Amino acid sequence: MQNFGQDLPAQLLATSAGLGWQTVEARQYADPAVADEFSTGSDRLLLVLVTGGRYRIESRSGRSWRRAGYRPGSLGVTAPGNVSVLRWRSSHPDPMESLHLHLDPAPAGGVVFPDALTLHDPFVLSGARALGAALRSGAPGLYADSVAQALVTHLAYGVVRPRRAAPKAVVPLSESEVRRVEEHMRARIADDVTVDELARAANVSKYHFIRAFAAATGLTPYRYLRRLRMRAAAETLRTTAYGVARVAAMSGYRSTGQFAAAFRTEMGVSPVEFRNSR
C-alpha cells in the first residue's frame, strides 16, 4: 500500500498485501494494553474497527482531549490528510485487537470525509466486518474492492455529521519547500515514505504539512509521490527489459497488482500495455 507510514505501537498480525486488493489494504493488529501519546496520519481514509478487548482511548485536537470507550464493534474514522494524536489504556484483561482499513478516497472526488473518534453506523460496521472476514479467508480483489468502494461512497455521502465552521485558510508551501520535498521523494522512491520525514524535509509541522503541500501543488503528497513513481516506472519499462515485478519493487510497491492499478491510473494503460506500445 502506498500511503504514508504510521508509527503504530502495535504488532501486525495479518495484511491483505499480496491478495490483489487495489482500493483498500486491510491490516489486523494486536494492540498493547497501554499506548502513550503518539501521532499518525495518512493520505488515505482510515477506518478502524475494534475486534478484541476494551480500552479507554483519547484523541487530542489542539490542547484538548476527546475520550471514548472502545469495545468489539467500536468504529473510528480518520479523514484523508488529517493527523491524529492518540493514547489509550486497557480496561479489560481480554487481548486487544483492531482491524485497520486504509481506503482509497479517490472514487468520491473532493468530498470532505467525516473524522470521528467514534462512529455509530450499521452500514459501516457491516462493511468493515465483511472486509475483516475477507482478510481471514483471503477473498479476491473483486469482492474486497467492491465492499471498499461502497464504504467510501457511504462515508462520503451517507454519514450524517454536524455542520462545522469553515476551516481557516491554509498557507501553501513555498516553491523551495516543495522542491525539497520532491527531492526527498525522488531519493526515497523505492522506499516507504512517512509524513514525518516529508514534513521535516519542508521544515514545517506535520500537522500543517499535508494541507499546505496540497495547497501549493494541487495534489496530496500521496498522489504527488505516486505520479513521480509512475513516471520513473514508465521510463524504466521503456529503457530496460526488467519484469513488471522488479519495476514495481523499484517503485516502492510490494504488490504487483497495486502497482499495476496505480500505473493505469496515472498512465491510462497497464505496465504491460505500455511496454508493448514502445
UniProtKB/TrEMBL annotation:
Give the matching SUPFAM superfamilies: Homeodomain-like
What are the HTH araC/xylS-type domain coordinates in residue numbering?
179-277
Q: Name one Pfam family in it.
A: HTH_18
Q: Does the keyword Translocase apply?
A: no
**Alphabetical UniProt keywords:** DNA-binding, Transcription, Transcription regulation
Enumerate the GO terms in the molecular function aspect.
DNA-binding transcription factor activity; sequence-specific DNA binding
* Family annotation (PROSITE patterns): HTH_ARAC_FAMILY_1, HTH_ARAC_FAMILY_2
Q: Which PANTHER family match?
A: HTH-TYPE TRANSCRIPTIONAL ACTIVATOR RHAS-RELATED, TRANSCRIPTIONAL REGULATORY PROTEIN
Q: Please identify the protein, giving its name as recorded.
A: AraC family transcriptional regulator
Give the organism, scientific name: Paractinoplanes abujensis
